[in-house]
Amino acid sequence: MNESPLYVRTYELILWLIPELLKFPRTHRFGLAEHLQNLVTEFQDALIAAGKAQGDERLALLRKADAYLEQVRVWVRMSRDLRLITMRQYEHISRMMVEIGRMLGAWMKKVQAEKTGSAGRLVEQQS
Hints:
Blueprint lengths: L4 H17 L4 H27 L2 H27 L5 H40 L1
Helix pairs in contact: 1-2, 1-4, 2-3, 3-4
């Protein structure tokens, strides 16, 4: 999993995001910033777990990761709307999340195709 481009990009996202969250004003640091940090680390944890899982469990973990990524997107947008990050920072993190989302989507499609393919082979074998 450590060599996966998705894992690497997620790690880079976290490395970039956490120092920015620490710059949030105190009024938002222990609410919004902490929540956003928890979401992004839960996303990474779900990816790591998916890398270790197989079959239906892997697909479920990837879907969970996808939901976390969507929540991160919403909270990052809220951070921008509250002027806690600049437009330039928002554009940067948005590009990172789009790239991560594409990689995650490709992995999910691959796992789904493997699941469908193995089910198809099972039906063929039974015939």
